[in-house]
C-alpha cells in the first residue's frame, strides 16, 4: 500500500508542475509579444524608414531623370564639339557667324535690311 507521505509528495509535484507550466505559458506570451513588436519594427522600416521601398522608388526616379539629363548634355557637347571643329577647319563657318551675329559684309557687297510693317489690328476682328 501506499503511504500518506507518498500522496503528499505526488500532490506537491503536481502543484509544482502546474506552477512551472503556468510560468512557461507566461514566458511564451512574453516571447510572442516581443516577436510581434520586432516584426512591427521591421515592417515599419520596410515601408517608411530609411532604406524603405518608397525611398527606393524615389531614388530610381531620380536616377532616370539624371540619366536623361546626362544624355541631353552629351548631345549638346557633341554639337558644340562639331561647331568648334568647323570653326577650326574652315573659313565658311567663321564667315557665316560674322554675317549673322555681327552683321558684317564683304568689301563690295551691299547690305539691305528689310523691315516689315506690322499688320494693322482691326478692332472688329476683320483683316
Based on the model shown, name its key terms.
127 residues; mainly alpha; rod-shaped
Topology:
Elements: H1 4-47, H2 53-89, H3 91-102
Helix pairs in contact: 2-3
Strand content: under 5%
* Class by alpha and beta content: mainly alpha
**Whole-angstrom Rg:** 44 Å
| CA(first)-CA(last) distance | 130 Å
Uncertain regions spanning at least 5 consecutive residues: none
The tally of strands reads 0
Number of helices: 3
The biggest beta sheet is recorded as: none
Average predicted local confidence, pLDDT: 82
Helix content: over 70%
What pattern of helices and strands is seen along the backbone?
A: HHH
Write down the overall geometry.
rod-shaped
Describe this structure in words.
The protein is an all-alpha fold. Among the domains are: 19-50; 57-102. Helices cover 73% and strands 0% of the residues. The protein is built from 3 helices and no strands. It has helices spanning 4-47, 53-89, 91-102. Helix 2 packs across helix 3 (91-102). The chain is rod-shaped. The protein starts with a helix and ends in a 25-residue tail after the last helix. The model has no long low-confidence stretch (mean pLDDT 82). Belongs to the FtsB family. Keywords: Cell cycle, Cell division, Cell inner membrane, Cell membrane, Coiled coil, Membrane, Transmembrane, Transmembrane helix.
Amino acid at each position: 500500500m501506499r503511504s500518506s507521505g507518498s500522496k503528499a509528495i505526488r500532490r506537491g509535484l503536481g502543484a509544482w508542475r502546474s506552477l512551472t507550466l503556468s510560468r512557461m505559458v507566461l514566458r511564451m506570451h512574453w516571447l510572442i509579444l516581443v516577436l510581434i513588436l520586432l516584426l512591427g519594427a521591421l515592417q515599419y522600416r520596410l515601408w517608411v524608414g530609411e532604406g524603405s521601398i518608397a525611398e527606393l522608388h524615389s531614388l530610381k526616379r531620380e536616377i532616370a531623370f539624371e540619366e536623361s539629363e546626362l544624355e541631353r548634355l552629351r548631345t549638346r557637347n557633341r554639337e558644340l564639339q562639331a561647331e568648334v571643329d568647323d570653326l577650326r577647319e574652315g573659313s565658311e563657318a567663321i564667315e557665316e557667324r560674322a554675317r549673322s551675329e555681327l552683321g558684317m559684309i564683304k568689301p563690295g557687297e551691299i547690305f539691305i535690311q528689310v523691315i516689315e510693317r506690322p499688320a494693322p489690328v482691326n478692332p472688329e476682328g476683320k483683316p
